[in-house]
Amino acid sequence: MTTFRAISRSGFRRWSTYRQATIAGAFTNVVFGFVRCYVLLAVADAAVGNKAAGYDARQLATYVWVGQGLLSVVAIWGWTDLADRIRTGDVAADLIRPVHPVVSYLAADLGRAGHAVLARFFPPLIVGMIFFPLYAPQRWGTIPLFALSVLLAVIVCFGCRFLVNATAYWAHDARGALFFWTLSSGVLAGLYFPLRLLPDWLALLLYVGTPFPSLLQVPSDVLTERDGPALQAGLVGLQAIWCVALLALCALVQKRAERRLVVQGG
Question: Which of 15, 153, 154, 235 is the most buried (most CB within 10 A)?
Fold first, then answer.
């Protein structure tokens, strides 16, 4: 645990050095937040009873701004550290360290997420609170459950990104897999629109059969109290199941990859 905490702190410090990129990223999230918010508010205004898929206007506005803040916390895009190290052969150094690669990369990613919570989650949410009426949770247990859901979302997303990057062990170039991940993850995670707008059978299939809704949709639904307490807890439990399954799969893939790893250049 001491080593895990040390790696997490180093991940936090690493990302805290990119101050200009952090400011630019937060500004971009705010701009797209306005666009998405007005689109979904128009959908709610045109819906029967001013509710779209069970969300009223306040819940939809909250859904948008929470999603814009979580986008950088969960970090569904842009992480290519493992794939780059495999391509250059630097991953060989990771394999001789006393910490398992999955554990070390997870610890660093949690440190990154901790920095993103402070620098990328709250600014868009504060802007949303200034310009739009947002939904305030009515149940006392919603906030701690939301915090747990965000933590699980970060771990689930790490597992997905690790597996996508690990395709470089066999293909030596993960750009194709990363491109496919970039195209599919935003849509299937509920970034562009709530997945509840889809037909019920399709939304259920995505929730149960894929980890994508656990990245953004579930934390946003928890905070907006879209569902009752029992279903809220069930969705977070589903996130926990995906965490265990994906981390176990990451460890298995890493073990198999080490058997056939070819370090380029020698």
Answer: 153
